């Protein structure tokens, strides 16, 4: 019997009991749909993280004082200074831009409106370059603003909306701690960050203004130093050079623990990518168990089918069919069942992944999950479905091919 004829006979045999065939493949449908959905949603999360990391700046590094846990409390000892930032910018060839950062937190008042930004930072003139952030309107701080501690500020989109509604804030005045500041710029809208926080709920000031006018401090310490390497390929070189420079400036000899930490967006991306990949693989593995359950279901139904069609098998053998033909026929039936369920499951999985990411964007304010459909995962799942059908259909097919034609013809 030709292979094509064997396939035709197998498909006709399945068509005689459509309801049973449909119920048989439910396990495979659920397994393929779950795997496709989990991998696609995991890929969407990974893409979201990469997009958010780009908003930090592709060549971004930040230096912070070393933190340590004492008596169960994490403490940070100030160790970075404005002069450290200046030295990094002037002495290191791998560094494109540097900005000290000083944090503060106070309500911002404009007329009868009062608002508390999530982030209120004192920064240098290169901060926007480092963060790959643009201005929607106005201008950023100038060198003279840093030198004299001018009372100027730049507002994020959310702060503008809360304090000014539809009015143009440029040139207007806001009060921070009863000190008036002039709005000179508006930041371009960024949306939600990695943890869902509103990145636009921010107010930026010259770092010298924060220290002198808001904190009333004459010390040189800063909370952190933001750095941009000249290119993504120079991030590691910049990390090494910054570490060596600060070790020398702080008088830390070999073997002593550093009083600072250097991190990069590349390092964060690798860490988050590893976590996302592990979670996706775990979820896909759990979903894959459904495929094994579906395979067991296929084997059970095929064994029942062999029993029900014993007389048919005997007749086919009596008219010349070989055991190999019977084996191939039942094996094809099993693989067709599995692939049919896989195709339905892949379509459902793609639809579910699109629906889930769309739903997340609808119910999560400011969220911008990209819709990513993992076609490779769907194809691999389909291949796995075919393998499941072949493996779990092999024993029933082998059993059918080993029937004795005389006993099969006598079977009632």
Task: Please characterize this protein's 3D structure.
This protein is of the alpha+beta class. It has 2 domains: about 5-55 and about 270-410, no CATH class; about 80-260, no CATH class. It contains 14 helices and 14 strands. It has helices at about 5-15, 20-25, 25-55, 80-90, 125-130, 145-150, 155-165, 205-215, 235-250, 265-310, 310-320, 325-365, 375-400, 405-410, and strands at about 60-65, 65-70, 75, 95-105, 110, 115, 120-125, 135-140, 150-155, 175, 180-185, 200-205, 225-230, 260-265. Strands 1, 4, 5, 6, 7, 8, 9, 10, 11, 12, 13 and 14 form a 12-stranded mixed beta sheet that branches. Strands 2-3 form a two-stranded antiparallel ribbon. Strand 5 (about 110) and strand 6 form a beta hairpin. Helix 3 packs across helix 12 (about 325-365) and helix 10 (about 265-310) packs across helix 12 (about 325-365). The longest helix has about 45 residues, at about 265-310. The chain is elongated.
Produce a short descriptive summary.
The chain has 412 residues and is α+β, with helices and mostly antiparallel strands. Helices cover 56% and strands 17% of the residues. It has 2 domains: 192 residues, no CATH class; 181 residues, no CATH class.
Counted beta strands: 14
Query: SSE order, as H and E?
Result: HHHEEEHEEEEHEHEHEEEHEHEHHHHH
Rg value: 33 Å
- The mean pLDDT is 79
Considering DSSP H and I runs of 4 or more, what fraction of the residues is helical?
55-70%
Shape: elongated
* Count of separate structural domains: 2
Terminal residue distance: 26 Å
Largest sheet: 12 strands, mixed
Number of helices: 14
Low-confidence residue ranges: none
How much of the sequence is in beta strands? 15-25%
| Estimated structural class | alpha+beta
């Amino acid at each position: 019997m030709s292979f094509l004829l064997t396939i035709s006979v197998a498909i006709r045999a399945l068509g005689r009991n459509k309801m049973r065939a449909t119920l048989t493949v439910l396990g495979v449908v659920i397994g393929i749909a779950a795997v496709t959905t989990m991998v696609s949603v995991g890929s969407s999360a990974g893409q979201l993280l990469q997009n958010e990391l780009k908003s930090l700046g592709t060549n971004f590094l930040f230096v912070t004082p070393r933190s340590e846990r004492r008596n169960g409390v994490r403490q940070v000892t100030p160790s970075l200074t404005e002069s450290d930032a200046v030295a990094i910018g002037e002495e290191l060839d791998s560094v494109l831009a540097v900005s000290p950062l000083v944090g503060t937190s106070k309500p911002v008042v404009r007329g009868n409106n009062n608002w508390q930004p999530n982030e209120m930072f004192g920064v240098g003139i290169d901060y926007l370059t480092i963060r790959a952030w643009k201005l929607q309107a106005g201008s950023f701080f100038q060198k003279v603003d840093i030198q004299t501690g001018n009372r100027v500020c730049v507002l994020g989109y959310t702060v503008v909306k809360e304090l000014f509604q539809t009015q143009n804030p440029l040139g207007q005045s806001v009060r921070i701690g009863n000190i008036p500041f002039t709005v000179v710029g508006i930041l371009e809208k960024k949306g939600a960050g990695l943890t869902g926080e509103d990145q636009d709920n921010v107010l930026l000031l010259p770092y010298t203004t924060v220290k002198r006018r808001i904190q009333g401090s004459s010390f040189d310490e800063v909370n952190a130093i933001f750095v941009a390497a000249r290119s993504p390929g120079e991030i590691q070189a910049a990390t090494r050079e910054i570490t060596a420079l600060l070790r020398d400036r702080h008088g830390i000899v070999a073997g002593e623990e550093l009083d600072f930490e250097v991190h990069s967006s590349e390092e964060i991306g690798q860490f988050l990518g590893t976590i996302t990949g592990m979670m996706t693989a775990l979820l896909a593995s759990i979903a894959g168990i459904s495929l094994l359950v579906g395979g067991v279901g296929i084997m059970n139904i095929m064994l029942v089918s062999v029993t029900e069609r014993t007389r048919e098998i005997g007749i086919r053998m009596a008219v010349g069919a070989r055991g190999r033909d019977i084996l191939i026929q039942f094996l094809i039936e099993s693989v067709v069942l599995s692939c049919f369920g896989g195709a339905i499951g892949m379509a459902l999985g793609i639809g579910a992944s699109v629906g889930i990411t769309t739903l997340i964007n609808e119910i999560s304010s400011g969220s911008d999950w990209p819709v990513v459909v993992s076609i490779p995962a769907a194809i691999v799942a389909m291949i796995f479905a075919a393998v499941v059908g072949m493996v779990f259909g092999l024993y029933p097919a082998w059993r059918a091919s080993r029937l004795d034609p005389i006993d099969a013809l006598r079977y009632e």
